Amino acid sequence: MSNEVFTLRVNGTDREVKDSWLGESLLDVLRDRIGLMGAKGACTQGECGSCSVMVDGELVCSCLVMAATATGQEIVTIEGVAPVGSPSDVQQAFVDAGAVQCGFCTPGLVMAVHDLLERTETPTDTEIREELSGNICRCTGYGRIIDAVQQVAVTRSNGATS
Ligand code: FES
Ligand code: FES
To answer: Domain 2Fe-2S ferredoxin-type: where (predicted)?
Structure first.
C-alpha cells in the first residue's frame, strides 16, 4: 500500500498527514501522525468509546474511521473542546462532581456528554445512561458522571454558557 499525503482539519487547523497508509484509522493518525494523544485506543473495535471524536458534528469512534475519508471534514478532538487551562463546562463539572476517572475513558465520556447536551438540553437519567452506553468503564459506577451531566444541564438552562 502506497504512502499518501493528505490534509485533515483538526480543531480548526489544517494538519498535513504524511507517511500514513490509506487504511490507517483516524485514531492512529490523530495520535501517531499528528500528535494529539487525547483520544485513546482501548479496544480499537468500536466497543468502548475511548477514541470518540466529532467529525462534522457527529460523534464517532475514530478507531473505526479511515483517516483519509475524513479529509474536508471538521474534526474535533478532546484537545479542541476548550483551551488548555480553561476547561469547558462539562470538563469542570466532571471535576466538581468527582467524575474524572482514568485517562482512557474520561476523554471519550467528555466528548459524548458534549454531544448529548448539544442535542438534548435537559436529559433524564435514562437518556444519559442510554447515550453513554457506548462509553465503557469496567472500573467503577456511572453515578458521578450522571451527576456531572445534570449539573451542566441545570447551569446551562439557567443561562450560563459553556
Ligand atoms: S478504541 Fe475505539 S471504540 Fe474502543
Ligand atoms: S476505564 Fe477509565 S476508570 Fe475504568
So the answer is: 4-81
Would you say the pTM of this structure is higher than 0.70?
yes
Fold of 89-160: DNA polymerase; domain 1 (1.10.150)
Cα 104 to averaged position of ligand 1 atoms, centre (Å): 10
* 24-61: pLDDT as tens digits: 999 999 999 999 999 999 999 999 999 999 999 999 99
Residues 57-110: tens digit of each pLDDT: 999 999 999 999 999 999 999 999 999 999 999 999 999 999 999 999 999 999
- 67 CA from centroid of ligand 2 (Å): 26
Atom of ligand 1 nearest to the CA of 44: 1
- Atom 3 in ligand 1: residue holding the nearest Cα: 46
Report whether CATH 2.40.30.20 matches the domain 4-76: no
* Among the listed residues 75, 90, 72, the one whose alpha carbon sits nearest the alpha carbon of residue 29: 75
